[in-house]
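Bug #77: duplicate submission created two jobs. Keeping one. Sequence:
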Amino acid sequence: MSDRIYLVLLGAPGSGKGTQSQLLQEQLGIPQVSTGEIFRYNLKNETELGQLAKSYYDRGELVPDEVTIRMVEARLAEPDAARGAILDGFPRNLIQARALDGITEPHGGIALVPLIQLEDDVVSMRITGRRLCRDCDRVYHVTFNPPRGENCDSCGGVLYQREDDKPETVQNRLYVYYKQTSPLIGYYFAHGLLVEVDGEKSIEAMQEQLVALLVARNIGLKGSAVSA
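Kept job's structure:
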């Protein structure tokens, strides 16, 4: 019996995962949970996990899966995630995927894993045009989803381009994405959870496709019963 809705969004950087997650959280009444947001929160608030992660950063080392998993587990235990969450950027490998299974299994497990498909040249164009709000992390694009003014529409925060969104880093990001994500695609396909979404469509058309997939799987939208 499922009492929560957990979605995992897969897709190359720039494919629209962040934007679609933000829209889906309105449809489903559950939060978007991104690893970037979680790390920034823990580092800014100097939590125990944040200090542990910082110790690895300061030594120039990657944060171990165990620390990332503990951060995600703590985030999913927050009151706003009592009905589930939309995971964006986690899991990144099979160790994290299996850990997420363990966290979510008592509540019905992962409901669906949409994979946003997009050609590499379009990915490059989308990445370099992306801008983020420094305060609330809302995602914009200078061409496809620009803000109304110079600052964030939601909170008025300053918009910026991440260092890893700059053209010289795009090819390496795509290499890392394919290396990390390929095993996850096979993993979730084998579990009958993977569905493909056409990333070439407009933001609105992609959202309609995602909602249709949720309805087809009887995954409850906001105001409706959670699927059994």
